[in-house]
Every structure is written in structure tokens, then in C-alpha cells.
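Input sequence (349 aa), recorded before submission:
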Amino acid sequence: VFWGSVLLLIFNIANFCAASVPAMAARTTDHEDYVSGLAAVQLEQELAKRYGDILTDEAVAQMLADLAFSEEFLARTGGVNVKYIYNNFLQQAVQTHFAEPDGHFNGLTVAEVFGSETIKVGYTAGWLATAEYMLRVMLLLSVLVVLALAPVFAGEYEGMDALLLTARYGRTRLVWAKCIAGLGFAAGLALLVLGLNYGVAWLCFGSEGLEASILFAADNPYSFIEQNLSCGQLILWQSRLAITAVLTTAALTLALSAALPNRYMALAASAGLLFLPLLVSPSPERPLYTLWMLAPAYQLLSNHLLALGTFSLGGRSLLWAWWALPASLLAVGAGLCGAKRAFGGREVR
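Predicted structure, C-alpha cell format:
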């Protein structure tokens, strides 16, 4: 657990340094030099304010004119699609949606690209980069939870179980105390990691871009989400799904720890249960696919779950990801009851 925590810290710092502010670079046009770090953040935030709060056809035309690559630059790049060349996030976004590969206007209107959705323009680069590296960080955090909780019950089977199970509260309060401590550890660790990372992001970006639509952004792990989410809504969804996933992982690990004869088997089984849905998945065309996406691993990889679309409830259209909450509650309840039954009902030898 100690070395897992060290690895998580190193991995988190490395991802932050590679994907967030220190690695950012931007310029307005190809005639300028790149600026990096906080200077790049400030430049892109100022760019986002130039064209109004709502994306319009007039704003698109102005962006394409202001942020276009020079003919000389395009000739030097050898005909590379402009959406793969980065000056700043706004240039890449507008050319991804409204430009031909050579940078000329493709003739589409905002309504033709985004339908009836109202697209808010704002600084999305920093928040999307933060959300992207948090996908990897939270997946590693779940591994740490498995490492920490696999021995909670199974570790007692190395000789301590006979003493504990003959104690007055060994089959009742002790079991619930272990479960509560395990869930508390998992939730506390997740909240700490989420709070630290998003707290640092807030210090770097402020509130700029939290209302901006992720639909008006270039290629990123959330590009295939069709719903008009803002960056702030995306961060809230990622945090919510991370908590439910970690709690589900913790409860199922506790159940396996109580049911299996030693900590190594519990560790292997818990890790397998966590990663199996990523390795074996039904076809997206099958009904089982949407239920499969509620597995803890896919809740941690929230971009996959959020891309499933919506369902109707009481005349309202809700994201399918809402089902992660009742699925997590059921899994946590089943895991804790399974742990109580397995450990509390164990025969003393």
C-alpha cells in the first residue's frame, strides 16, 4: 500500500506536468512565437473572450479569418489537415468543425453542425486536459484501493481468525467496523485526489471555461459525447462517477477478501474483477453493452459511460450515466452483505 501510494503520487505529478499547465503552449497565428505555461493559458483565455459568449455563424467566420494559417505555412507543412496543427485551442476547434483540410470554410452553419444546441464559447483546453489525465489517475487509484483492502479479512485467515471469531463482537461489530473503515479509506482517498487535482486546476484556470461547451472542442477523449455538456458539468460527472466506482470496487474487494482463503487470492480476484470488463466487452449493438458500461472500470473511464447517450424518465431526458448511482448502491450493499456473511459465518477451527 505504501509503494502503491508512492506510485500514485509520482504518476499523478507526471500526468499533471505532462498534460496540464507546464506543458501548454499557444500562439495566436503562425507568424508568432509560442508562449508556454501560464502565459499560454492567459493567451487562450483572452482569445476565448473575443468572439462573444454564444457561438454564431458570424463568430465562426471571424474566427476562421483571424486564426487562419498563412498560405506559406500550409505549403511548408505539406498539406497536413489543419485540424491536426495546433496554434491555440480556438483555432483547432473552429477548423475541426468548420474548415476543409486546407483551412478554407466548409460552408456549414452552426445549426448544421450542432443542431438546435446553444454552444457556449470559452476556454476548454485546460479543463479538458485535466479531465483527460484524471482518467488515468483515478484508474490507478482504484488499484491502490484493491491493494489496501484485499487483506482486510483474508489477512486474518493466517491465524488470527480463530481469536477474532470467538470474541464477543467478532462476527458482528468487527465485520461492520472493517467494512466502514474500508469504505471510508476508499472514499477519503478518492476525495483527496479529486480535491487536490481540481483545486490545482482551479488555481491555474480560475472559473474561465467552466460554462463552455465541450462540443466546441477539437479531438479529445470526450469528443464522441453527443450531449451538450459544459466543462463544469463534465468535471462534476467525472467526480461523481469516480466516487461511485471507487466505493463499488472497495465493497466488492471486501466481499472477496472475506470469501477467499488468503490475501493473495483476494488480491488477484479483486484486480481481475476490476479489469475484466475492459478486456472482455460485448458488442455495442447488444442490449447487455449498456449494462456492461456500468462496471466500476467504465465509471472511472467516464468518457465511455457519458458517450452512451440518454434515456427518458418522466418526460425528461437524462444521461445513461445516472444509472451508475443505483448500480453502485446495489453493488455496495451486496458486497457488504457478502463480506458479513462470509466472515461472520466462518467456522472456527
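Checked by second reader. The first strand starts at residue 25 and ends at 26.
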